[in-house]
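To: structure desk
From: M.T.
Subject: fold request, one chain
Message: Could you run this one when you get a chance? Sequence is below, nothing fancy, just the single chain.
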Amino acid sequence: MKHVIALDVGGTGMKAALVGADGALLHEARRATGRERGPDAVVESIAGFAAELRAYGEERYGESASAAGVAVPGIVDAENGIAVYAANLGWRDVPMRDLLSRRLHGVPVALGHDVRTGGLAEGRIGAGRGADRFLFVPLGTGIAGAIGIDGKIEAGAHGCAGEIGHIVVRPGGPPCGCGQRGCLERLASASAVSAAWAAASGDPDADAADCAKAVESGDARAQDVWREAVGALADGLVTALTLLDPRTLIIGGGLAEAGETLFTPLRAAVAERVTFQKLPDIVPAALGDTAGCLGAGLLAWDLLATASTKSTESQEVSA
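Reply: Done. Structure tokens follow.
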């Protein structure tokens, strides 16, 4: 059975799968990145994991994987297959595509940015299915975005498109790691809400999920924290809507697990802020933490389709 290897690499863990031509997850596995052992050890963990998946596919399905797709955090040069920078993994200019391809005996490898790869899956087979223009925004430790156009993700001229988390929504606000102040992710990410609720509640272990539960129970302090975060998020999203005019806005990540506790006030806040802009459908992500892995599989199948098309065109020219 034809299949591809899919790897979604996070800061502390990896999710992997063998993915069939129809997008089905044939086999799933998880493993720690081993980042405590240093950046080289992380690369070795990824390569070793991929090799094990290749061997499993050969044993289980009678043939080797046709390609592999890997999604990684940070700045990615997908065209040249280089993981340019990932602070949480200690990477700089890691030639991930070539390293993995060698370990996989020459199997072609596609490399993608984790959020854009997750957005690819949400757009094609998840909450954005059928939408010609969408924006995927996961609210996790930080906030990033994936711009979907006709089934593909726009990476930008330098691989940095969609970084909505670094729109300044509160000038002069809290400092951000990017060097600015008042960035959206410093006010509306799951980690930002966790920090704000821990301070407001006096419980250093409190997190965003606890805040959402307190909001639902009517806690005035939690409602204030939530209102501030939703307001900042709505301001950032309206800026994105003004620039991109998406048909569907997909919200994912840990904060979206609050369900309508988030979506009801968020839809209202966005509606209050738009003037000439057209309101998109604002919907929760559908694929959860499998999005990155499924998207990596789609990258691999896309790579094979592109190679097949180029081969056909070359044969036609030669003829």
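Reply (cont.): The chain has nine helices and 13 strands. Let me know if you need anything else for the meeting.
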